[in-house]
Amino acid sequence: QYPWDLQTALKRPNNIINGGDIIWLHEGIYNGRYTCTLKSTIEDKFITVSAYKNDKVVLNGNVASTVPQTLAVKGARVIFRNFEVTWLGDYIRDVRDENFGGTAAGINHLSGINCKFINLKIYNNPGLGFGSWKSTGGTLISECYIFNNGVINKEGKGAGEGIYVQNKSDEERIIKNNTIFGNYYKGIEVWSAGRNADFEFVKNITLENNVIFNSGIPSNYKTVDNIIIGTDDRNGINIAKDITIKNNILYHNTDYRNNQVNGDAASLTIGFYHKTPVENVVVDNNIILGRNNALRILYAQSLTFTNNIVYSGYVLFTKSVFTHAKNGQWNVNNNQYYTKKQGAFRVPETKNYTHKEWMSLFPLDANSKRQHVGAFNLDNVLDITENEYIPKRFRVTLFNKVEQDVTVDFTDYNIQKGSAYTIRDVENLDSELKIGTLNEDFNITVPMKAANPSKIKTRDNFGVFIIEFNSDNITTEAEEENDNIFKKLWRFLGF
After folding, report:
1. Which of 40, 75, 171, 303 could form a disulfide with 138 if both were Cys (CB 3.0 to 4.6 A apart)?
2. The whole model's pTM is what?
């Protein structure tokens, strides 16, 4: 009956709000830029900030302000879940325009430990989507949709990542089950651009089961890395280390049916500056799709690269490979490479090596395979992930080389026959793509072709869909029979 305004709620001291309490956000648009200083002082209990039930809650940062983000987080043991962070309305996204109104991130997590960001929709912000910065620890970012964030900078290039992540803490930072696409710059940067560091703060980070695609495409339709791991520190101190990239799907728009591979479209880059080669980076069981330079392993002191599928014009290395790969600290094996030419492993100013030459030169890729891009194909169903926090909601990632519809089998997911379902394309979450009822074969056919594709829409060979079941609305066999009788009668009467 007497609700706080949002900023008041987000700054309550812990004698009023503490671990175990929930701040419910009721449906509506919250116009403003907010700072959260909530802090739970109870070791094993969290404060939760969440939309109430199924209310649609939107934080709209498109207001007159010099604050550099819509939501700043400074606190401890707080869970943020089930709301949107965006800019609504029309605004200019080109810095060169005289009417440009400034940049602002969606969320900046600036300080505090053990915060969780779950089921958030972070989009259309004129800057970074999510900044997870070094002075935080124990962070979880999960089940979020992060897309179309960024601007065109003074050089006419895209700026604004999906997620920019650092970590000086010894606690692991986990980024998993997110869907990140169509941002103006890179998808996820595990990175520091600072050149004069005196301590390490890009470490202990895990990227798992994320789907990241078409990074950079809104900015003049250019593509950039879906993931980059490294730093630009010139002191050789701030080294990206202890980082795991596992079970991710990285995609760029490509005509795979016609073996398109020319044109630069990096998807994963490891290492950046020669004085700070990455250490203890594990890249395992990922799908890495792009064009030329889809995979770049530039500077890596110690690296595990195993069980990955790579589609690329070639795999790019630097001359440092002759030092680092021969020192016994690289484990590269059991990968499947699809490249345009047999000389798939490129070291500029040296040569392009065939797989056989590569294996003889280094103790690498002995059990890997290299094939021509013409042989490339993938399973139609790349991944089905049930939302950890919302039962019977699934993220389904699909591929079809010839751009045909895909059938998904839900036999093994404990969904009752007759359950109603709704399909949404992640690129159009506010609209229903298809509704239906789960039949006795437990198969659902998902349409891959977009009805009204934009210039930056993903090609019809790839798609990420949300399929949600409602077992409370089950159609029984008797109801189906009655429905069929009614339809027959309706036709008999001439309707």
Report:
1. 171
2. 0.94
